Amino acid sequence: MADPQHRPALATLIDASGERWPGDVAKMIDTTRRLKDARHVAVMPDVHLANGFCVGTVLATSRLLYPTAVGGDIGCGMLAMAFNASAQQVGEHVAHRLLCVLPTLVPANRHPDGRLAEFNPRQRLSAPKLQRVLQRDGRVQLGTLGRGNHFLELQRDTQDDRLWLMVHTGSRGLGQAVSTHHLRQPDGSSHGRPYVDAYSDAGRGYLRDLGIARAYARLNRIRIAQATTHALHALIGARPDPASIIHTDHNHVRREFVEGRWLYVHRKGAAPAHAGRVTVVPGSMAAPSFHVIGKGDTPSLCSCAHGAGRRLDRTTARRVVSTNDLNRQMAGVWFSSQAASRLTDEAPAAYKDIRRVMKRQGRQVRILRELEPVLNYKGF
Which of 26, 128, 232, 372 is a Cys-bridge partner for 21, taking CB atoms 3.0 to 4.6 Å apart? Predict the structure, then answer.
C-alpha cells in the first residue's frame, strides 16, 4: 500500500475550467493540491466555492479519505427518464395540476405518515446515533426532494419533442449526519481538513456509511420518479420508458484504477464520465440540460461537470435578484410563481452559462441530446 508520507510536493493538477479562477477559488484549489496523500486534482468547468472544498473538484488519494471532499449530501445525483408522450401535452391545465399535487406527492422535507419507508440496507451504520437518524428521519424523508438546488423538472427533447423527467436530489438528512459524524472523529487533519485512513476502523466505517447513504439517495430519486410517473399517467396517460433511464450521482468517493494504480477518487459536484458511461448535466431553472456520454479522459479523472455551477452565491443572489427578475427569467417555463420570493437564490442569473460549460468539456464528454425545461418544481 502507498505511504501517504511519501508523495510529490504537489498533486498533479488538471484544469478543465478554461478560465481564470477567482482568488478564493484558486486558494482553495491550491490547498487541495497540498493535502497529505493528494495524488491528482481535477477541476471541472462548473467549479465554484463551497465549504472546505470547491464544488466541481475531483481529488484522488492512495488511502486517506477526506469527508469534506465529498460533502454532506452524500450520493446527491441525477435520474432522467423518458415517457411515451410529447412535451406539448404538458399545457397550462396539466402544468397547473402538477404544480398543485407535487408538494403532496413529493414534499420538500417529509412525508407525514412515513408511508414510503422501504429502505432496508444489509449492513447497519457504524454508530448507533446514525442508525437512529436512519430510523427517525430516513423513514419520513424517503421520496422527498429537499430544498436549495434540488429540483424535479419535466423537459422537452429538442430533436423529437419527447417528454423527459429529471430529478436532482440526494441522501437528505442521512448523508449530512454521516458526514458530520465522521468529521468529528477523524484519524488526522491536513491543512484543516479532517481525514480518515481507508484501512483504519474509522475509514472502514466511513466507507460503509457512505455506501448506505448513496443507496438511500438512489432509492430516494426512484421513489420521486415513481410518484411523478403516477401523476403524469393520471393526467395525460404517459407511460415511462424503462430502457431510457439514466441514473448517476456526483458526491462520493470510490476506489478506481487510475494510470496503473488503485486510488480513492473523491468527487464533490463532479459526475463520473468513464468511457461509454451516460450521465446528465443540468442547466439552471430556465436553461437547457444535456445527456452526455463519457470519453474516459484520464487526466480529468474520468469526470465532468455536474451542472452549470453557481455564478452568484446565495446571499448575493437574494440581494440582487428580485421576484420580478425571476419571473422574467422564467418566461416560458411553468413553475410555482407564488413561491418566487423564496426562489430568487436559484434564479437562472445565479448560474453560469451551461453552453459555455459544455464547450469546455469536449475532451471529457460527447453530447447525446439537449433538453429544454418545460416545468420546474423546487421544494420551498
Answer: 26
pLDDT in tens, 22-48: 999 999 999 999 999 999 999 999 999
Q: Smallest Cα–Cα separation from 214: which of 242, 247, 240? A: 247
Q: How many helices (H) and strands (E) does the chain have?
A: 9, 17
pLDDT of residue 64: 98
- Could you give the residue numbers annotated as active site? 306
The residues near 198 (Cβ < 8 Å, ≥ 6 apart) are 63, 64, 65, 204, 207, 264
Matching CATH number, 12-311+351-377, of 3.90.1860.10, 3.40.50.360, 3.30.450.20, 3.40.50.2000: 3.90.1860.10
Provide, for the chain, the percentages of residues in helix, strand and coil under a 3-state DSSP scheme, each rounded to the nearest 5: 35, 30, 35
Q: Which residues pair with 61 in a beta bridge?
A: 38, 264
Q: Which class for 112: exposed (0-12), middle (13-18), buried (19 or more C-beta within 10 A)?
A: exposed
Q: Residue 109: how many CB atoms within 10 A of its CB?
A: 14
